[in-house]
Amino acid sequence: MRDLKIRIGEREILHGINLDLIPGQITGLAGESGSGKSITGLAMLRLLPKNAKTEGSITFEGRDLLALPERDMGRIRGQHVGMVFQDPTASLHPMLTIERQLTDHLRAHTGVSKKEARERALDVLRKVRVPLPETALKKYPHQFSGGQLQRIAIAVAIICEPRILIADEPTTALDVTVQAGVLRLLRQLCDDLGLAVLLITHDLGVMSSLADRIAVLRQGEIVEEGTRYDVLRNPQHEYTRALIDALPSHERAGADLESAESAAPVEEISKEVGNE
Ligand SMILES: Nc1ncnc2c1ncn2[C@@H]1O[C@H](COP(=O)(O)OP(=O)(O)OP(=O)(O)O)[C@@H](O)[C@H]1O
């Protein structure tokens, strides 16, 4: 994003931000409520309210998304950029089986056969570590817990093998005991699939355990951007220091940066999933 400005009605919400997403890295966008984090994510998919006006550019693989015809943008949205939200039910249809949700989405964008779509659906459920994928395909969203459902929403978001995944407060609505498992899953998908992840959260604790780079948004401006280490250990802006000071002390201590490679081994993740 370069010099991205967004105005909704009379109000300018983003005042010209620059942000890069890098394959295989998690870029965290932090900031308090109302600072413009979600609007930044939605702008990438051109899902802003009708009365929004956008200036600047969002370049993806050489093309400016803000200038694309709506038809091409539809393809980018479904296929190249996936998004998950705080509430997983927002991206799932309550009346359709998990199989339909995964395969309809895949077939609409790739035209693969029914049989192949089912194989891909099973495969992606394994990737997000939903237990008993064959059985899970036959179930409906209400038959899953919140943590499992967020994994399924992530599966829908990645089944078309996007290059970018936008995760807007992906664990905020989850029970604390299952948050860590979903965060580790995001880390692992980012590493294994080379996804460029935009992690949007007000929670600097989440950021400190997961993001490779952190951008701090305040009232529509990025006031600080850098590696996790630099931003958390040597914050330059008073606002970032205030956010860090607001963290519980154990999380502040944890901000010392276990490396990205230190995601939990698979067995440990499987155990966590069992608990969900
Ligand atoms: N549809 C809309 N119409 C008008 N203003 C909006 C709309 N959506 C968001 N805004 C405004 O844009 C600003 C940024 O909102 P945004 O949702 O991006 O904040 P945020 O940083 O994601 O906060 P939160 O964590 O509370 O979601 C807020 O002041 C909000 O009131």
TrEMBL record:
PANTHER family: DIPEPTIDE TRANSPORT ATP-BINDING PROTEIN DPPD, OLIGOPEPTIDE TRANSPORT ATP-BINDING PROTEIN APPD. One of its GO terms (molecular function) is ATP binding. It is found in: Cell membrane. InterPro entries: AAA+_ATPase, ABC_Ni/Peptide_Import, ABC_transporter-like_ATP-bd, ABC_transporter-like_CS, Oligopep_ABC_C, P-loop_NTPase. Residues 253-276 are annotated as: Disordered. Gene3D superfamilies: P-loop containing nucleotide triphosphate hydrolases. Residues 1-244 form the ABC transporter domain. This is ABC transporter ATP-binding protein. Keywords: ATP-binding, Cell membrane, Membrane, Nucleotide-binding, Transport. GO terms for biological process: peptide transport.
